[in-house]
Amino acid sequence: MDCPECEPRLIDYASHELPEDERVGVARHLAGCPRCALEYCRLQADLEGIAEAHAESPRPEVFAALRREVARGFRPAWWTRTWRVLARPVPMYGALLVALVPAALWLLVTVRPSPAEPPVHPRSGAPSHHVGAPPILTDYDATELPLAHRDVL
Asked: Where exactly are the structural domains of the chain?
């Protein structure tokens, strides 16, 4: 057996899947050819490394949980994500803001509680506009001048 015939059979030889007569032929060739023997040693080391890595690798659920934890750790807070969305220069946001300002003003006017009946002043019976306000003048007439402005002479 020569090198071009032996090289394609090295993987099958390493995994013990060759028929007995071919296995003997590859073994004899490896004993006499240093190039193919070196290639077989490299292949054997690679296969052992793959087997060890496969045996040591965790289940896929572990990777999924790890990805979720990393994403949660690096994901910005909800207010940061919301601010980034709102801070984008999208023309529709301006139109929406212009439409929301009158709606908000209308809502403030209509939702405001209606004024209650003003409290009645205890002495005069007239409505008092402020609690704790000074007493209302009852003997004042705005059509007459106060005494200080009358002609003295």
From this structure: 3-57, 58-88
